[in-house]
Amino acid sequence: MQLNFNNLNQLWSYVLTETLKRLGLSCAILCPGSRSTPLTVAFSKQAPDIEAIPILDERSAAFFALGRAKATGKPVVLVCTSGTAGANFYSAVIEAKESRVPLLILTTDRPAELRDCHSGQTIDQVKLYSNYPNWQTELATPVANKRMLSYLRQTVIHAWERCQFPTGGIVHLNIPFRDPLAPISDGTDFILDCEEFFSGIIATPLPITNYQLPKEWQKCQRGIIIAGVAQPKEPEEYCIAIARLSQTLQWPVLAEGLSPVRNYADLNPYLISTYDIILRNQNLSQELTPEMVIQIGEMPTSKELRNWLINVNPQRWLIDSSAENLDPLHGKTTHLRISVEKLGNGKWEMGNGEWGFYLQKWCEIEAQIRKNIDETFETIEDLIESKAAWLISQILPPKTTFFIANSMPVRDVEFFWKPNNSGIKSYFNRGANGIDGTLSTALGIAHHQQSSVMLTGDLALLHDTNGFLMRNKLVGHLTIVLINNNGGGIFEMLPIANFDPPFEEFFATPQDINFAQLCATYGVEYELINSWKQLEERLKLLPSQGIRVLEIRTNRKRDSLWRKEYLRRFSDAF
Q1: How far is 436 from 520, CA to CA, in rounded Å?
Q2: I need a surface site. Which of 170, 354, 455, 530 has the fewest CB within 10 A?
């Protein structure tokens, strides 16, 4: 097939978008603007192979793209105009870097002759994101000859690969365009033989290396496996691999609430979900001191766990395929740069099923504390924050996509999320741990899912209400379970809470928002939840389209005191 181009920018943009299509790009997020016109037109013509989604607010757009990339495991493209537009991507850039999520950012720009001369809407966009990208460059100004088009094609291929290898992250291409930006004739006359030019495009993955289990693991009777924060592409395979390692070594698995291991509980008979509570008991924390620790992926959120590992300082192995340093504890650590799914290469000998005292002790304590938690929550009728995570873990339909906001929701999930076998697909922004783009990320994950749920506090939702502007673009459904305690509940857990003033005004920052009116403004469905039974009814059968907010109003100070009291009670009761 041959195409004739009479506009230079459209030729350049076609080669760029067609290359990405052939590499496998399926989603591009386009923020409106003038300088990005050539790319917007080109991406719009790539439908249905590439879904082009226009989003007004650049920060929301970036987090929506982050959510899509998390959900699909594939790079998503972000496009914006020149000037400060690209700066609004920065929060999501940082989160993507820290979470290793593949995003390809295309910031359009004025050509060199219009820079540094007070031309409108022009800033220095080269290396805009500092050292956060895996790779970054500025493309040449468009030229209509095959050699330069070949350069463009290969640069785009390299950008695509660097989004993903050796680890996921950001690639930033700054793209200058001269006028005319609209697809009108500018005197260009270029015929492109598409099949010949694009033949052989392939993004080459890195080779996979397999490792055998170290001998010292198999000889150790006091070892633990920590299944940390993780969003694997194939969660069941990931959980099977961890269960296999656990049963081979006869070691317990301390599974973070943000790990899929808790949602595939039957795969692992040695699953420990109450480790944060267990380690609050000084006698137990000493009795359960390990000799060796295998940490899979990122460290869990729990400060109790982190402090315990710092104090006992066992030999640790980190299993993660990235090239990054994942040891914030700076302990005696060996990093095996391989995924847990590839560990061992199939040559494992399973344990004989005879529990040692150490493993048995962990499992007995887990069973008792889990029983205490369940019995306590079953009798609580009042609407308290912590029960929401516990209840949701048991009532969501199987395989539901579930986004967990930062601050208190992730901690209540770690404390109280009950192991289940529903295969819930959990997502979160635990790269930089901020509340930026909470709603937009959740919408990006929910897009093209039949039904999704988000658990968030009021401040995290308010910080990103522009995300509601995407309601008419969402294909699928998102139910938002809103814990409204009118402020920053997480700060109630910190020593500064004892100093008021300035605590309430400067840290808790209550906003006194009427969420029913807010939802009405954006045309979003709203319902006030007055009982746990009502919440259960609303979550057992989820809609398939639109956005819905289910608000649970709670008392921030009362709930903080409840957490402190009952976390201690559960720990001391054993």
Answers
A1: 23
A2: 354
